[in-house]
Amino acid sequence: MIQIQLANLSLVLGATRIFTDLSWEIQQGQKIGLIGTNGAGKSSLFKLITGEYQAELGGSLTFSRGLTIGYLAQTPELDLTQTALESALDGNPRVAHVRDELVRVEESLGDPEVYSDERRLGRALDKQQHLLDEYLALGGDTYEARVEVMLLGLGLPLGDLTKPMSTLSGGQKKLIGLARLLLLHPDVLLLDEPDNHLDLPGKIYLEKLIRDYDGTVVLVSHDRYLLDAVVTHIAELEDGKISVYEGDYSSYSLDKELRLARQAELYKVQQKEIGRLEAMIKRFAIWGKVYDNEKFAKKAKAMQKRLDKMDKMDKPIIERRKMDLKLRGYRGSNKVLELDGVKKAFGAHVVFDGLNETIWHGERVGLIGPNGAGKSVLIRMILGEEMPDAGEIKLGPSVTIGYYAQEHETLDFEQKVIDVVRFTGNMSDSKAMALLSKYLFNYEQAQGLVKNLSGGERSRLQLALVVLSGANFLLLDEPTNNLDIAAAQVLEAALEDFEGTVLIISHDRYFLDQTVERLIEIKACNFKNYLGGYSEYLESTGRI
After folding, report:
1. Would you say residue 119 lies in a domain?
2. Within a domain: residue 271?
């Protein structure tokens, strides 16, 4: 059954045309991964479906009767005066309404005017029973417990449940928004990057929630592992058009490659036919004039009509422009990093207790652990921004660090983009612009302020600065969080060719599989090593 149908819709925002004549059908029960490069219009498409944006005249957007839609934006709007638990509990207002009605009915049963009037008492008892039945059907008797379990499963610490929303991080607020939506249980869920900022346990829990959801889910995500785990279809938004592929992300990758190959072959055949017809039209037209023969002229006109009616294919774009990322590096010290008995605590909270670890030249090491385990604390200590309480952190004598910050805090948000590159690389405007062009920035973006860039654009800028540092030891803190899939693949290829050492903090399981040869898990204030990528880690820990 078709739940949402978009037919020939066009959307323009300001001076930018997002898509033209877009058509798409969303069927009941589908789990769809909506993918596309940053700026392709995925979030705009969601806002069009929810009515926040209005399409141009022409085309249609239709919904099945009585359809309910739940939408999780990249930045949910929430009441910051509430606690996390209060906000989540309000996710299903019907539960709260029925609970309040039950309280009022129960209070009325103690009213002498009610319990002494048989008819009024009967009506009150009937209403109470009706409300109790609905409350139980809504799961109201276990509602608060289920809300708590969901929030904890998604990765919100127990102590944060009663904190005001204003004190929580952007990622934690998104968890609350997701929980509210799941508790409301609409027919269709539109989720815009729900996995961003989730740690690995949170992502695993999210996968289960989506797989078990008995409604339809449309999911925008750049996490290829998540897309492989939960979706039944991939919908790719590219050049303002939707192409639908059956299966998960890996199936889509193969199917798209085959589809492009077929399109290229069909385009080649059609172009050959067009060339043949054009040559014949030209020849008959010349013969008609030379021999003054109307028969040749009519043939030329008939062939031209046939050519005009032909459904001409667009030339398929086999290779699209991508970020030109080439990480420089050099041999440097054999022993890159050594942790010797490192201890760190904040008050009574012990983060690390006697860490001992060595990272050698050329290693690709992934650092994993739940949010709050101390991954970022370790990075700050390696950078010298935080001192250990005991023990020592040693860097090799010819080691230089290139740091990619998760929240882009190393960028000056009030600086022009071109000036950031120009000052860092000590280069002219023209050279800075040439470099920015390799990272897919146009002239207008280069002249703008960093604070006006999107998350993906800030990520590309930060990668450009890492390259300019010429470092041979890269500390990458969640480098794929704001990158689209194409950019993440470019980074994977660049890391493979990098002459240096890499320490990566990431919750992107697909990325870890592609880039690291050893995983360090922070567990019980210490380290545990696993050879291989994320898949080998799952196997070693018995999770698959």
Report:
1. no
2. yes
368 and 473 in a single domain? The answer is yes
Please state, in angstroms and rounded to a whole number, the distance separating the CA atoms of residues 276 and 280.
6
Asked if residue 348 and residue 387 are part of one domain, the reply reads yes
Distance of CA 207 to the CA centre of its chain: 14
What is the token pair recorded at 537? Answer: 């880690």
Whole-number Å distance between alpha carbons of 375 and 381: 10
* Residue the block writes with tokens 């054999």: 334
- Residue 368 included in any domain: yes
Query: What pLDDT was estimated at residue 225?
Result: 94
Q: pLDDT by residue (tens digit) across 263-299? A: 888 888 888 888 888 888 888 788 777 777 788 778 8
418 and 287 inside one domain? no
CATH number, position 491: 3.40.50.300
Dist CA 377 CA 429 (whole Å): 37
Is 0.90 topped by the overall pTM?
Answer: no
186 to 130, 189, 232, 471: CA distances (angstroms): 23, 7, 19, 49
Instruction: Give the model confidence (pLDDT) of 54-80 as tens digits.
Output: 998 888 999 999 999 999 988 788 888
Of 460, 390, 449, nearest to 420 by C-alpha is: 449
The reply to whether 488 and 346 lie within a common domain is yes
**Beta carbons of 18 and 39 less than 8 angstroms apart:** no
| Structural domain for 293, as ranges | 266-309
Q: Give residues with Cβ within 8 angstroms of 439, minimum separation 6.
A: 323, 324, 325, 460, 461, 463, 464
Residues 403 and 288 in one domain: no
Rounded Cα gap, residues 176 and 524, in angstroms: 27
* Total number of domains in the chain: 2
Contact 484, 36 (CB under 8 A): yes
